[in-house]
Write a structure and sequence with these properties.
Elements: E1 4-5, E2 20-29, E3 34-37, H1 40-51, H2 54-57, E4 59-64, H3 71-84, E5 90-91, E6 102-105, E7 108-118, H4 125-135, E8 149-156, E9 159-167, H5 174-188, H6 201-208, H7 211-230, E10 248-257, H8 258-271, H9 275-291, E11 295-300, H10 308-311, E12 321-326, H11 332-348, H12 354-368, E13 376-380, E14 401-411, E15 415-421, E16 426-432, H13 439-458, H14 466-470, E17 482-484, E18 487-489, H15 491-501, E19 507-512, E20 538-544, H16 552-562, E21 575-579, H17 589-593, E22 599-601
Parallel strand pairs: 7-8, 13-15, 20-21
Antiparallel strand pairs: 1-2, 2-7, 3-6, 4-9, 5-6, 8-9, 10-14, 10-16, 11-12, 15-16, 17-18, 19-20, 21-22
């Protein structure tokens, strides 16, 4: 092991380079060699790893090292973690061009630690360590052979200060990182770790593949399908919005609020519900209010660690729970009561075969003529056994309320939030898509959340008063937008997209009364009584085909192929009417209705039955 001078590629961002860079190889042994199928969470994340930009899918953390710790103690603690947790000794062999189907646990092996030694650290040492960890996310993990942690030890004149890590998301998620961080600190403190109480990945996969596990997966797929067929396809369907799935770069906005912490505790006491439930209700109420929707659809990524068998398992359980919460209640207290059952229902349905889920999403959205957007993600990690990266850096400050902007990152959603702490400060980081939220609107949303909690701590809040209480205004769409099949739709955008889909043939899109071939009349998915939606209008598309052979099914198929890249507010018509030539007054719906029909029908397939 020969120290070499650190070279000039400083990915860490204008900071002074380290004095030396050294690579230390650490051998480990003492575990069991095992092999088995993937867990559902592993399969879900490996699908993303093979497809997505590594800087988006890999994850990172920073572990402070107590003063006086020697480098050997750090490597010994890392070795102990590798032996203790099968997930850290796991690789995923697979032939080129194919996805893994098995995981292999090694009994022994080795990993490397890159040691960056400095004469001194920059003025913001924790921020510098975070930047080192973030930089290590670049580059795809070699699933079939690479140790799933990239480890950098930052030292000052040989004295350890921080361990900066990048993880393969195939073996760890935010909860797993927090568990490892906690155990690393306990090992350095000389404590003996307790026996493992949660299942390692190979055993978890066996549980998931059992008859009970397969029934659970099937129930989850049915639950998701009901939401996909009946819920809004975009939470933020509005003229300035981009299509769901279109990545944007959004800056991190962080709220630290003792006011919010006190208000949340007070609202929980007054309503008699847990703080997490009250916060979720407030989040959904404000999101739906801002989006102008009757319900809030939000993904809950940390939902599936509520069972003891996975609570402290070092693996990835990254599968969304999908919450569909009807917010049509008179006042906030009723929404809190409704939220409790809806969240539990979402949690129960967060274990599924991800390949089959995406096949179902593709099938259902093609049948409905939509494109489901994972617009809103709410990740409450405040109950984890240790805070994940960066959450304690400023806990000692007594700011009543503060908003601060951080670095940008690619955002494949419209709104992503992490709740790190709820006491003594409410600590939330928000990434809001610039196409939907100006910086002032993003700040107003988080400030409005605190105002809602303060009002809820004082008394029940009428839902119709949300704008007055929070200062958050609903989206402005204009009179041309319609509520169709539970979604906000822009008929002009539908007409333009359909016209492109059928090669420029004349198209007219008309609003018709009542519902036609829609699944919108299916009951709601959160166990609450929803209003009947049969009174909603539907869209009929008239297409003048001339000499071009065209059927409603062909028109629908061509349109759905364009919808994923189309603008916001595009949903397929419920009915296609094929005529020969356009009328003399092509802007008049009644003129199109008087024409002789060549063919008509709906491209939408079947409806989904309500099941509880």
């Amino acid at each position: 092991m020969t120290p070499t001078p650190a070279v000039g590629k400083d990915t860490m961002h204008q900071n002074p380079p380290p004095l030396t860079t050294t690579t230390v190889t650490v051998a480990y042994a003492g575990g069991d060699e095992r092999r088995g199928p993937l867990t559902m969470g592993q399969a879900n994340m490996i699908r993303c790893i093979l497809r997505d930009d590594p800087t988006h899918i890999n994850i990172h953390d920073v572990w402070p090292v107590p003063e006086g710790t020697n480098p050997a103690a750090v490597t010994d603690a890392l070795r102990s973690l590798a032996v203790r947790h099968e997930g850290l000794r796991t690789t995923f062999p697979h032939p080129p061009g194919a996805a893994p189907v098995d995981q292999v646990v090694a009994a022994e092996g080795m990993f490397t630690v890159t040691v960056l030694d400095h004469t001194e650290l920059p003025a913001d040492p924790a921020g510098y360590a975070e930047s080192v960890a973030r930089a290590a996310r670049a580059g795809r993990f070699a699933l079939e052979r690479e140790f799933p942690m990239r480890i950098t030890l930052l030292t000052v004149n040989g004295q350890p200060a921080y361990v900066a890590l990048a993880f393969s998301h195939a073996v760890a998620d935010g909860s797993a990182m927090a568990i490892l961080r906690e155990e690393f600190a306990e090992l350095l403190a000389g404590k003996e770790l307790p026996g493992l109480t949660s299942l390692p990945p190979v055993d978890l996969a066996a549980v998931e593949a059992s008859p009970a596990g397969l029934r659970k997966s099937e129930a989850s797929l049915r639950y998701w399908e009901r939401i996909l067929r009946t819920g809004p396809q975009e939470m933020f369907a509005e003229p300035r919005g981009r299509r769901p799935g279109t990545d944007e770069e959004a800056r991190q906005l962080t709220l630290r609020s003792r006011r919010g912490g006190r208000a949340l505790a007070g609202a929980a006491r007054r309503t008699g519900h847990p703080e997490a439930t009250v916060l979720m209700a407030a989040w959904c109420a404000l999101v739906a209010h801002r989006a102008g929707q009757d319900s809030c659809v939000t993904a809950l990524p940390s939902a599936n660690r509520f069972h003891a068998r996975v609570a402290r398992s070092v693996t990835t359980t990254s599968q969304d729970a999908l919450l569909h919460l009807d917010v049509r209640v008179p006042a906030f207290d009723a929404l809190v009561s409704r939220t409790w059952g809806a969240v539990l229902n979402a949690y129960r349905h967060s274990q599924f075969d991800s390949v089959r889920l995406w096949e179902m999403i593709d099938r259902v959205t093609a049948e409905r003529g939509s494109h489901f957007g994972r617009d809103v993600v709410f990740n409450d990690v405040s109950a984890l056994p240790a805070p994940i990266l960066g959450t304690e850096a400023r806990d000692g400050e007594n700011a009543e309320q503060e908003l601060s902007w951080g670095p940008p990152q690619a955002l494949p959603t419209r709104m992503l939030a992490f709740t790190y702490r709820t006491a003594p400060q409410l600590h939330i980081s928000l990434w809001a898509a610039p196409s939907v939220f100006t910086p002032e609107e993003a700040e107003g949303f988080l400030s409005g959340l605190v105002l809602l909690l303060e009002a809820a701590a004082a008394g029940d809040v009428p839902m119709e008063a949300l704008a007055e209480v929070t200062g958050v205004r609903p989206a402005e769409r204009g009179p041309d937008w319609l509520r169709v099949d539970g979604c906000w739709v822009a008929p002009d955008a539908v007409r333009e997209t359909l016209g492109r889909a059928v090669g420029g043939l004349p198209v007219h899109v008309a609003e018709e009364p009542g519902s036609y071939g829609s699944a919108a009349a299916a009951a709601d998915t959160d166990g609450t009584a929803g209003e009947a939606s049969g009174a909603e209008p539907h869209l009929t598309a008239y297409i003048a085909c001339g000499e071009t052979p065209l059927t409603p099914t062909e028109a629908h198929r061509a349109l759905t192929a364009l919808i994923p890249a189309a603008g916001s507010g595009v949903l397929a018509p419920h009915r296609y009417v094929i005529v020969e030539n356009p009328p003399a007054e092509p802007d008049r719906s009644d003129a199109w209705r008087r024409l002789n029909t060549i063919d008509e029908g709906t491209g939408r397939s079947r409806q989904v039955r309500h099941e509880r």
